[in-house]
């Protein structure tokens, strides 16, 4: 299998998800025979099918926290990938809140579907996890779900860091250090106190200096401001290639440089025609 990152949706908060102003469903990472579905929010199954992803091929599901826009389709996805338990397989990696709930959150994983999986791993910050030849490092995140996490994936071909939902802290740059590709949930344009914003992203990217930063998880305010413009501003101030994810976008993480240069030129051209 060719290495790919496939964005099934780029919707951020529930306002955007409920209107489907952008699709939702998380994203999929494929490396050799390894296939991981990250944050399967609403529409994960539908958008996987539209993008030609066979969920039966999933090796693992990775969830960052227990909010609907990140794991609404978790149980449905488990059903589809295991033929409703006839072929028990796959690993779920998720924080405590997703599997067992918290004082304020009910568990998102239902007991019936939990038995369909080969293994469930409760992820905790800095406790390394190995699935086949992929090493996964859960990272701290600051969010309404106290167990929320980001993740860093070490594959044989590249290192990918995913922020999950988090507010900015100076330590984030250290957590994401060494990533070739940084997938940053950046819901807010400009400068904002509501959560991760463009100005926060600039500080993080300047510190991490990945080969590529991909913005996703957009709020309505970000959509109104146009994510492409915000990505340009981050790239201008950091010197790092930054793109705004689109629904259905496919990235080749190994040889992306030439492809993304062409994609960026195409986006600029279409933008100039407005």
Explain what the structure shows:
The chain has 274 residues and is an alpha/beta fold. The chain has a single domain (4-272), classed as Ribonuclease Z/Hydroxyacylglutathione hydrolase-like (Metallo-beta-lactamase, Chain A, 4-Layer Sandwich), CATH 3.60.15. Helices cover 30% and strands 22% of the residues. It has eleven helices and 14 strands. The protein has helices at 14-19, 44-50, 68-71, 74-81, 96-99, 111-114, 172-175, 198-208, 220-225, 227-238, 256-272, and strands at residues 4-7, 27-31, 34-38, 60-62, 91-94, 119-122, 129-131, 134-140, 149-154, 159-162, 181-185, 212-216, 241-244, 250-251. Helix 8 runs parallel beside helix 10 (227-238). The longest helix is centred in the last third of the chain and has 17 residues, at 256-272. It is globular. The chain starts with a strand and ends with a helix. The model is unreliable at 257-274 (pLDDT under 50).
User: Cα distance, first to last residue?
Assistant: 38 Å
Low-confidence stretches: 257-274
Strand order of the largest sheet: 6-5-4-3-2-1-14
The helix count comes to: 11
**What's the level 1 CATH class?**
Alpha Beta
Biggest beta sheet attributes: 7 strands, mixed
CATH topology assignment: Metallo-beta-lactamase, Chain A
CATH superfamily grouping: Ribonuclease Z/Hydroxyacylglutathione hydrolase-like
CATH architectural type: 4-Layer Sandwich
Count of extended strands: 14
Number of domains: 1
What proportion of the residues form beta strands (DSSP E)?
A: 15-25%
Which geometry do the CA atoms define? globular
- As a whole number of angstroms, the C-alpha radius of gyration is 17 Å
- Structural class of the helix and strand makeup? alpha/beta
H and E string: EHEEHEHHEHHEEEEEHEHEHHEEH
Helix content range: 25-40%
Average pLDDT level: 92
